[in-house]
Amino acid sequence: MTSWLLKTCRLLCLCVTLPLRLLDVAIKRLFPRLMYNRTFRYNDLMHSEKRQLFRNVNTFANSDGTLRLLEIGCGSGANFQFYPYGCTVLCADPNLHFDTYLRRSMDANKHLTYEAFLGLPAEDMREVEDASVDVVVCTLVLCSVQDVTARAENS
Question: If residue 114 lies in a helix (H) or strand (E), which one and from where to where?
Answer without folding.
Answer: strand 113-118
